[in-house]
Specification:
Enzyme class (chain A): hydrolase
Radius of gyration of chain B: 19 Å
Shape of chain B: elongated
Order of helices and strands of chain B: HEHHEHHHHH
Protein name (chain A): Serine/threonine-protein phosphatase with EF-hands
Helix content of chain B: 55-70%
Number of helices of chain A: 29
Structural class of chain A: alpha/beta
Distance between the termini of chain B: 27 Å
Catalytic activity (chain A): O-phospho-L-threonyl-[protein] + H2O = L-threonyl-[protein] + phosphate; O-phospho-L-seryl-[protein] + H2O = L-seryl-[protein] + phosphate
Strand content of chain B: under 5%
Distance between the termini of chain A: 62 Å
Largest sheet of chain B: 2 strands, antiparallel
Number of helices of chain B: 8
Helix content of chain A: 40-55%
Number of strands of chain A: 20
Family (chain A): Belongs to the PPP phosphatase family.
Structural class of chain B: mainly alpha
Radius of gyration of chain A: 27 Å
Number of strands of chain B: 2
Strand order of the largest sheet of chain A: 1-5-6-10-12-11
Cofactor (chain A): Mg(2+); Mn(2+)
Strand order of the largest sheet of chain B: 1-2
Oligomer: heterodimer
Largest interface: A-B, 46 and 52 residues
């Protein structure tokens, strides 16, 4: 052509038509491929956001538990703080069946005429089990009388089961294995719809984590237990790390039960504690396939696991006490609750003071006060707060400093080596995750169990003559994932776990050939109609909302960090410095530079960020809080879950209310734990704003609600994000559209 | 003056490096500074570049280690830095994109039928796979009329300026 070729001539329709068409096609293809790639990238980092926050929450719970355990072991008997929390550490007594049966007695509970839910008679029949599923599908609730009865029968059955179930495929065609359900009833219903309910021809293995996070945990348990009672040789349950009352305090199950069963919730929870401890630890299929919840470590020994007394581990987070403790401890051990012992309550607490003193270096802390303790814990908390990059740094840490205190559970010198070993075995089983690198290192991200490598899998399988490990514990986008040369299969059955559209769920069918056949699904018809772009966009918005709230909650630390890059106090920093500052404060292993454009939309003409302005841009609003100390508020936002967990622990009668005095004590506890100053005055201001009826007690839910952060930007979007603060939100969700 | 220019060049370089590393690490599953060669396209695209398939092949040829199927960060980083600093694969301006669509829309309807678009995308230029085509149609087609209103689509899938 001539030299006057302008841009518009590039696609001049009347010349070189074929060439033009090709050029146009290439352009469009390039453009579209770029768009797809960007979407994929967004999907990946959205996932990272949710997962990061989830794991740091788990870690926080373990740290909290450690802290409380430390208090328990080391405080002067008269310490108020110790009294507040001692009850969660009371160990179960050796079985006094008659007393327990009396405590859990359902016979006196009357079922009113207006009750429209199912009536159960025992022994349970399959029609009743199916009827129960139907009833729950129709949003009915099972009356506490029947719930208690069902749980009692379940408890009796579980006590007869071995630690490791051993089943075979020869009597039936295929075994169906399901992963984490986390209280998501619609997923269980979807599985039953697609695959059929459990029966003699259709055996099932449920691999733990039935409860927490989702809003129908108790319904799922009741369904699983009902089928277990009806088909004891065809339904197998493995314990998960969430079948643990300590974890339940933070993640919503405790609250769900107390909300749904106002009168008898406490008893139900107590009975469930026992039931959880009696759940088998693993299942072996055809002596070749091992199914367990978390994973293994380099020391996992199935023989040891088969022999131990699993019911001694009420919570996997704390080792059992030695049996031969002094007799004075039996009254402390007994955790028959206050209702039953009534006037002996004070006696109870004093009796607990005879807790035998731990041996070893920690003796000297006995007579120290809370203040002294805070200096000590300052060091620990600081090292614990250094969260390094998940796999690499954990590996390095172990290599360099074998004696370093990691934020994992600590062993107390009171316990025998045997007990410690057993405990570690169980912990590893329930909490570990696979990693790509070889070796075995402590799982510092979650705070319990290990990361284990493909070489460990290889050795383990050879040692025990197995061919495959099926585990759950980790959410996967496709509902499942193979690793370690396809010798380890992760299976996750809670779809839309992080948010609507975040992931599919899956279950596995295993026939005599022992080749896993995976079936995927996704609850909520709404999702199927969304395009990839829309569903990624939706989940991404949700994740970013959560992230913005977290950023806002760390405002003062962030401003400090920004100032370090802004020595001349200009109020602006570069994009790069913004990312570095955020990285250093947030301790979430996220690609901040990739997220930058989503989180920072306003820049100055020189391409810098006005950081004060940026906080306004985040558009997060807190409650009207003029009279409340700002740093206290920020603590509240940042540590919502921890605070709520402590409240629930302090609320010993599970009423949902705590006294003003206990409220103050809770804040004191928190201030020590977080090593910060909180004045009595500041606490009083807080309390006063919320004690609206001036009766000296505080409604926990009301309190947490009043101090919620809300995101102005997405007020209209009430997606199923589970991280909108605390577990409180879970039970207040609108129902998802039905399948 | 010169000094502050140098400084800003340095920080700019460091920033570029960090961005490249962040994108790379998202696909570094084994945490050993390598990614599967099949993911390189996605990484490069996500850094705001618009290479053609031919461009990608050339790039990969430069950085891949002996057809191992993996690309190491040590080789990716300098090559990618060069691409970014030289703006080697710049974004496509909206108006050019519009013209491209208009070329394909021979009857000037203002939209494209799925069959039309499919024909071009799977037979011309650097053809789409069937999977890519299906994804495109699901993503771009108007739900009710089942045609692609390309003007709207171009506006919706706006390009990210910061990258």
């Amino acid at each position: 052509m001539g030299c006057g070729v302008t841009k518009s001539d590039q696609f001049h329709k009347h010349s070189g038509k074929a060439v033009t068409t090709i050029r146009a096609a290439v352009l469009i293809q390039r453009w579209y491929r770029q768009y797809v790639a960007r979407t994929e990238m967004r999907r990946r980092y959205t996932w990272h956001i949710f997962q990061s926050i989830e794991y740091s929450g788990e870690q926080a719970q373990i740290k909290l538990y450690n802290f409380l355990g430390y208090l328990m072991d080391n405080f002067t008997p008269s310490s108020n703080e110790r009294n507040l929390i001692s009850h969660i550490f009371r160990e179960n007594d050796i079985c006094r069946d008659a007393e327990w049966e009396r405590y859990f007695c359902y016979k006196k509970i009357e079922v009113p005429e207006i009750y429209s839910g199912p009536h159960l008679t025992f022994p349970l029949t399959v029609e009743q089990a199916v009827g129960l599923v139907e009833a729950f599908r129709n949003k009915k609730q099972l009356h506490s009388r029947y719930a208690l009865q069902l749980l009692l029968e379940t408890w009796k059955l579980l006590r007869m089961l071995p630690n490791i179930n051993r089943i075979s495929t020869c009597h039936s065609k295929e075994i169906t294995i399901c992963g984490d359900l986390h209280g998501q009833l619609e997923d269980l219903l979807l599985i039953f719809y697609k695959n059929g309910m459990p029966s003699l021809e259709k055996p099932y293995v449920f691999n733990g984590d039935f409860v927490d996070r989702g809003k129908d945990s108790i319904e799922i348990l009741l369904i699983l237990f009902a089928f277990l009672l009806v088909y004891p040789s065809d339904v197998y349950l493995n314990r998960g790390n969430h079948e643990d009352h300590i974890v339940n305090l933070r993640y919503g199950f405790t609250k769900e039960v107390l909300t749904k069963y106002k009168m008898h919730g406490k008893r139900i929870l107590k009975l469930l504690q026992k039931i959880f401890s009696w759940l088998p630890l693993a299942t072996v299929i055809d002596q070749k396939v091992l199914v367990l919840h978390g994973g293994i470590s380099d020391s996992t020994d199935l023989n040891l696991l088969a022999r131990l007394d699993r019911h001694n581990y009420i919570s996997a987070l704390r080792p059992p006490k030695k049996r031969n403790q002094s007799s004075a401890s039996t009254s402390m051990d007994s955790d028959l609750d206050e209702d039953v012992w009534g006037a002996n309550r004070i006696f109870q607490r004093r009796a607990s003071l005879t807790f035998p003193k731990p041996l070893g270096a920690r003796d000297c802390f006995h007579n120290r006060s809370l203040q002294d303790f805070s200096d000590r814990i300052k060091v620990n908390v600081e090292t614990e707060l250094e969260i390094r990059r998940r796999r690499r740094s954990a590996f390095n840490a172990v290599m360099k400093e074998p004696e370093t205190e990691t934020p994992t559970l600590s062993f107390d010198s009171v316990y025998s080596d045997n007990a410690k070993e057993e405990w570690k075995q169980i912990l590893d089983l329930l909490w570990s995750d696979p990693m790509a690198q070889e070796g075995c290192v402590p799982n510092e991200v979650r705070g319990g169990g290990c990361y284990w490598g493909p070489d460990i899998t290889e050795d383990f399988l050879n040692k025990h003559n197995l061919q495959l490990i099926i585990r759950s514990h980790e959410c996967k986008q496709d509902g499942y994932e193979f690793c370690h040369n396809r010798k380890v299969l992760t299976l996750f059955s809670a779809s839309n776990y992080y948010d609507v559209g975040s992931n599919r769920g899956a279950y596995v069918k295993l026939g005599p050939d022992l080749v896993p056949y995976v079936v995927q699904y996704q609850a909520s018809s709404m999702i199927r109609e969304l395009t990839v772009r829309q569903s990624v966009g939706r989940t991404e918005r949700s994740a970013l909302k959560v992230l913005r709230e977290q950023l806002f909650a760390h405002k003062s630390d962030l401003i400090c960090a920004f100032k370090k890059f802004d020595s001349e106090n200009t109020g602006v920093v570069s994009l790069n410095d913004w990312a570095s500052a955020v990285e250093s404060v947030m301790h979430l292993d996220l690609p901040w530079r990739m997220l930058r454009c989503q989180l920072v939309t306003r820049k100055t003409s020189e391409g810098m960020i006005d950081y004060y302005d940026w906080f306004n841009e985040l558009a997060i609003i807190g409650p009207n809080s003029d009279n409340i100390d700002q740093s206290l508020l920020e603590t509240l936002y940042r540590h919502r879950s921890t605070l709520e967990t402590i409240f629930r622990i302090v609320d010993t009668d599970n009423s949902g209310f705590i006294t003003m005095e206990d409220f103050r004590q809770t804040w004191k506890l928190l201030s020590v734990y977080l090593k910060m100053e909180i004045t009595d005055e500041a606490i009083s201001d807080l309390a006063v704003t919320i004690d609206s009826n001036q009766d000296g007690s505080i409604d926990i839910d009301e309190f947490m609600e009043a101090f919620r952060l809300t995101d102005k930007k997405s007020r209209l979007e009430r997606g199923r994000s589970m991280f909108m603060g605390t577990a409180t939100d879970l039970t207040k969700l609108e129902g998802d559209p039905n399948i | 003056m010169a000094e502050s220019n140098n400084q800003s060049a340095e920080t700019k370089l460091s920033d570029v490096h960090k961005r490249i590393k962040a994108a790379f690490e998202t696909f570094d599953n084994a945490a050993n500074n390598t990614v599967d060669v099949r993911e390189i396209g996605t990484i490069i695209y996500s850094l705001g570049c618009f290479p053609s398939q031919a461009d990608l092949h050339d790039f990969i040829a430069e950085v891949e280690e002996d057809h191992s199927g993996y690309i190491h960060l040590d080789r990716f980083l300098p090559a990618m830095t060069k691409v970014l600093l030289e703006h080697k694969f710049p974004p496509i301006p909206k108006d050019l994109l519009l013209q491209a669509f208009e070329v394909l829309d021979k009857d000037n309807k203002g939209y494209l039928e799925p069959e039309e678009l499919t024909k071009y995308m799977t037979q011309e230029g650097e053809p789409f796979t069937q999977e890519e085509m299906e994804e495109m149609l699901t993503g771009l087609a108007d739900h009710e009329r089942n045609v692609i209103y390309y003007k709207d689509v171009i506006n919706q899938l706006a390009i990210d300026p910061d990258m």
